[in-house]
């Protein structure tokens, strides 16, 4: 723009026009803040969210008691609502991240991560939830802890992470075919876990096999085979003992 060739009034009007374009906000913001429907300047919260930062607000649940009234966004906060997930260990006051997604007040999704354990929960709102669960559903997360072969008494299984971090162990094993068993790695009542299986042979004789394996949780990241026994029951009534019928192939931890 060449002001030297413009008359004073024209130059002044042009400057006023430019100023009105750039100063189109209000008393709090010199420029209009962008929304999902209107162009404008980014607020600090918008910039933080765009860069992957969560909005820090430890009293979000105290200020907004209804979870579905929380504006869509990502929040670093503490759990202060009433309908907590059943397995959220310390419930009120637990440090969490909360993500609210949606484009309509009756079509929303909440995603909650419990920071102490890494447990992830999802809750949906779709109208009156006639087709969705009303409560929180836990997202299964699993990791491979060990792979190899273990069958004999006294065998030690050294896993890649502490077993206390997982609510279940998924065990892949072989006994006349590949199978899967689930055990609870830690309880306050005992340190051993047992799983058993049966095998009905594909024959007209009626023979069948039963087997059981006992694992001891030594604490931390170690399991020991305490027992691996089986019995082959024949149709004629005779029983035959089988040593080490089960072979563990892989162990996964489920959060």
Tell me what you see in this structure:
The structure is a single chain. Helices cover 10% and strands 41% of the residues. The mean pLDDT is 84. It is elongated and about 115 Å long. It contains three helices and 15 strands. By secondary structure, it is mainly beta.
Topology diagram in text:
Layout: H1 8-22, H2 44-50, E1 55-56, H3 60-63, E2 73-78, E3 95-104, E4 107-114, E5 120-126, E6 137-139, E7 142-150, E8 156-158, E9 168-174, E10 178-183, E11 192-200, E12 208-217, E13 222-233, E14 239-243, E15 247-254
Parallel strand pairs: 1-2
Antiparallel strand pairs: 2-3, 3-4, 4-5, 5-6, 7-15, 8-13, 9-10, 9-15, 11-12, 12-13, 13-14
Number of helices: 3
Task: Name the helicity range.
Answer: 10-25%
Percent of residues in β-strands: 35-45%
Shape: elongated
- Return the structural class: mainly beta
Strands ordered across the widest β-sheet: 1-2-3-4-5-6
Radius of gyration: 31 Å
């Amino acid at each position: 723009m060449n002001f030297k060739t413009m008359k004073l009034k024209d130059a002044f009007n042009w400057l006023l026009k430019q100023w009105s374009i750039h100063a189109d906000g209000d008393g709090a913001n010199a420029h209009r803040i962008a929304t999902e429907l209107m162009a404008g300047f980014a607020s600090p919260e918008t910039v933080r969210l765009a860069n992957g930062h969560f909005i820090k607000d430890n009293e979000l649940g105290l200020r907004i008691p209804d979870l579905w009234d929380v504006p869509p966004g990502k929040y670093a906060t503490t759990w202060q609502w009433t309908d907590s997930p059943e397995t959220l260990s310390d419930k009120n006051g637990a440090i969490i991240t909360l993500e609210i997604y949606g484009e309509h007040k009756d079509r929303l999704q909440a995603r909650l991560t419990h920071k102490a354990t890494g447990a992830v929960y999802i809750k949906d709102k779709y109208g009156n939830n006639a087709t969705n669960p009303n409560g929180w559903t836990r997202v299964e997360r699993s990791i491979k802890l060990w792979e190899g072969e273990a069958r004999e008494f006294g065998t030690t299984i050294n896993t890649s992470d502490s077993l206390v971090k997982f609510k279940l162990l998924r065990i892949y094993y072989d006994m006349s075919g590949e199978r899967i068993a689930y055990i609870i790695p830690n309880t306050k009542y005992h340190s051993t876990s047992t799983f058993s299986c049966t095998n009905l042979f594909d024959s007209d004789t009626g023979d069948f096999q039963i087997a059981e394996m006992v694992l001891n949780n030594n604490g931390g990241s170690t399991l020991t085979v305490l027992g691996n026994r089986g019995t082959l029951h024949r149709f004629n009534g005779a029983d035959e003992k089988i040593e080490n019928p089960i072979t563990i192939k892989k162990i996964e931890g489920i959060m």
